[in-house]
Amino acid sequence: MKNMLGIVIGYSHLLLDDMAADDPRRPDVDEIRKAGEAAVALLEARDAPPEST
Amino acid sequence: MAHKLRILHLDDDSRGTELTIAALRDAGYDCEFVRIDTAQLTAANEALAESERRLYEILDHIPAAIFLKDLNGRYLFANRRCHSVIGRQRSEVIGKTDEELLPPRIAQAHLANDRQALESGGSLEFEEFGAESGLEQRIFHSTRFPLRDSLDKPYAVCGISTDITERKRAEQAMSIARREAERANRAKSEFVSRMSHDLRTPLNAVIGFAQLLDMDNLTPDQRESVTQILDAGRHLLDFMNEVLDISKIESGNLSLSPEPVALPEIVEQVVKLMHPLGATRQVDVQALPITSRQRYVRADRLRLNQILLNLMSNAVKYNRAGGRVIVSCEDRDGGRVWINVTDTGAGIRPEKLALLFTPFERLGAEQTGIEGSGLGLALSRGLAEAMGGQLGVTSEIDRGSTFWIELAGVPAEKDITSAKESPAAGGPAADSIRGTILYIEDNVSNVRLVERLLRQRRPGITLLHASNGTIGIAMALEHKPNLIFLDLHLPDTPGDEVMRCLWEDARTRDIPVAILTADATVGQSGRLIATGAKAYLTKPLDVARMLALIDERLTA
User: Fold this and answer.
1) Would you tell me which residues 52-81 of chain B have a C-beta closer than 8 angstroms to some C-beta of chain A?
2) Rg for chain B (alpha carbons), in Å?
3) ipTM for the complex?
4) Which long-range contacts (CB under 8 A, 24 or more apart) does B348-351 make?
5) Quick check: B418 pLDDT over 50?
6) pLDDT value, residue B367
7) Are the beta carbons of A12 and B202 separated by less than 8 Å?
8) Contacts with B444 (C-beta within 8 Å, 6 or more apart), sequence order
9) Could you write out the DSSP letters of every residue in B2-57?
10) What is the spatial distance between Cα B285 and Cα B308, in angstroms, rounded to a whole number?
């Protein structure tokens, strides 16, 4: 799962590098990057040892 | 007439005493001679004693408590186990009642059971408490029955009691363990679905925005990046759905809609879908003409499709270049039908066949670079069984494998026309579509997606946004939009409640509502459509479908 998310985050960085600063599509790509990172954070929270109940 | 007895002869020798008795009658010696050979008597007595000793010896070794009580409840006999349970010597037990020997509560219960057994006349079974001295309370299973004399009158009650305390404890432990396991299972399912639910939101954003970008003009490099993102997002979604499905099957929460499904159509559909994949691997995919008598099976159409796609994509992936995949149907006993998917791959070793359907088990395919989650077969089998069918495999090394789905055949019905979606014939110019759409949704990211989509693709449309149901209803009344997109998972009111309000108010009844739901179960959507929804869209958003829906509704 994290592999796939890594792909998503990685390619969105690539896209951002490839787009001009004023490219109207930047916000869209940024949404993708943020979503990918949010998903990774969710998975990592799950894998972390649970707090004491 | 009284008889006097007179001993006439008494002869004592090594064999015993021989006694001759005469019975005298009044008038003289009119007698009868009776000879009693006491040796025989003694021998008989000894044999009897021997027999009793043997019997008692055996009884004393029986691990059950065995006793005899007379009609007053006094012990006539108690074997070793019995008096040991009571906690006294045998001599202290014989002749006493339970009230004198046992704690009052237990004695009462025994008394009642004895009485019941005597009254019923047959053999009765009880569960009762015993108190083995020094130990905690034990539970016994007791069989009691009356003993009858030669005149068939009951003269005693016999009881045979076995200590079942351990068995009871084991039963209790097992039921506790079972409840625990069920609870753990439920917790696991809840965890899985919560995790999937939480992951859906970012996944929807990834797929949604990637679709948007995909529709734009991109450089070759950019397009490759976008394609990669889209593929990864879709794979993730598929995987999540598989995990969720398996979890639902395991917890028994999977909802299915069985109906008669026409075999020729579904097979043809799936084969067509597989052609592109087959082409990339140089595998020929084809269906044999359906020669089975049964032409319909009872199945959930969507899920059967899913199973067939899974089997066929496996058949193509685990095949050889220049190989073939063949789909066929055959009749089986009891009105059942097999759908066979046969490949010309390397076959599967017998020892690995058993592991095939284990979740996440890829049997070494991880090393081969063939992609897969390891869940497909586990899910397919779970789905087949949930539909009342089976999934199995036969395989021959170096020749290939055949995976078969068994389902119940359905007698042929009059032509069941499946509602096929007709492709939208040349839509109106995107720019000319005007109107107002109200989007009731609490998730900001989703709103932004639709906003961007409309701004790019349908600039003539004004998008209004309400972040909860209450505001949504108010805005619908105020602005009278041409179309409402309604998310079902709102913070304040459930989506179907909002729908009801819109429907019941004459001022908003005519506004078409399309519901957006992450829950793709047909049943729920069908219900909502019956209560006024005009269409449903599932998340992640299929951008093309949404646009088609907008075009359809706003150009009416």
Assistant:
1) none
2) 43
3) 0.90
4) B348/B393, B348/B395, B348/B397, B348/B401, B349/B397, B350/B395
5) no
6) 72
7) no
8) none
9) --EEEEEEEEEETTEEEEEEEEEPSSS---EEEEEEHHHHHHHHHHHHHHHHHHHH
10) 13
